[in-house]
Amino acid sequence: MTTPTATVRDRALAEVADIVRAHEQSLVGLSHSLHAEPETAMREHRSAAKIAFIAEDAGFEVTRGVAGLPTAFVATHGNGDLVVALCAEYDALPDIGHACGHNVNGAASVGAALGLAAVADALGITVKLVGTPAEEDIGGKALLLEAGVFDDVAAALMAHAAPEDSVGASSLAIGAWDVVYRGKPAHAALAPWEGVNALDAIALAHTAVGLLRQQLPPGTLVHDVVFEAGRAVNVIPEMARARYELRARTTEDLDHARRRVRACLEAAALATGAELELTAHGADFADLRQDEFLTAAYTRAARSLGRDPVDRRGEVMASTDMGNVSHVLPALHPTIGYDTEGAHHHTASFARYGNSPGADRAVLDAATALARVGVELATDAEQRRRCLALLADRRRTETASP
């Protein structure tokens, strides 16, 4: 199709901002509602329904439970060849609610989708709002990516709540194991030698990994938590359960760390005689690779709204399943800032600011900025061709794969 003209672009940039302003009450209301009823990974039934209802009411075609994930959905509007995805997060953390600001993230993506839907026909785009559950746990985006939900997407966008505005940062790759050691029970006083102590295996594994940390490259982290290690003090523990999480700067570094940590876990089993069971917990998260054009477009859009994002290229933040998406197609994941009085992500203090006036403004500004990025992409002939060519290459590769 013919790329829209500069006049069409200017009108669309203004219109998406008008649409977000027109939906201010519903978008802020959505953010507050998500914040008031936090739901953890794969239990976000009310949260997903709230977002899907808004999309449906705006004329989007909504499909719920995609990729076998009950709390995932896809909502589409338009029929252009350039498919722009907005990723909506909405899962919270156990006990501390929306301590990562996903109520802001989700509402912002909804607002951006509504804005772009209003100009979809003029720009020749399809808007795809993707409900992505369980970012804090098993990695909904990674699972949706594997299931083909992003197969037709030319670019994927979202913004993340934070204490500051920033662009360009990477993230740590991450992988996790559920670990079970199985031993043999025995009376701890009468015949302890007849038992195989699963708690000993957990203790040895924890110690071995602790010693390994000195030998791991900078940026590689390992953390663990023990869920169970015996029930009665006078019985040799026959089972111990833990979870190990590994983070690294790249997927290659993550693979290296996984081999080293696995050796520690296996050594603990060998030393104690316990049996080791390792199960991957969810999908691995890849390191985040943000698209340069999308980042520059977002920076311009944010500045037009009175914000001045800090350039964090070359720096690493925590971890996100948006990294998996970014390895496959052009992706954008800036942070949208508001005052949290020094509180950081994943704390109850941070969660308290998720429905503040600053967070409300962040919802609207992020929605407008993301929508304007979509407009710029659709109306820049070179970048539009680039993203469509990358999509065509992916499809050819997938078709050629056995």
Please describe what this structure looks like:
This protein is α/β, with parallel strands linked by helices and 402 residues long. It has helices at 6-22, 24-36, 45-57, 102-123, 140-146, 198-212, 251-272, 292-304, 322-326, 348-351, 357-379, 381-400, and strands spanning 61-64, 73-77, 82-88, 125-131, 155-157, 160-162, 166-167, 170-171, 173-182, 221-229, 239-248, 275-280, 310-311, 316-317, 331-332, 335-337. The strands form five sheets. A six-stranded mixed beta sheet has the order 1-2-4-3-5-15. A four-stranded antiparallel beta sheet has the order 10-11-9-12, covered by helices on one side. It has a two-stranded parallel sheet with strand order 6-16. The longest helix has 23 residues, at 357-379.
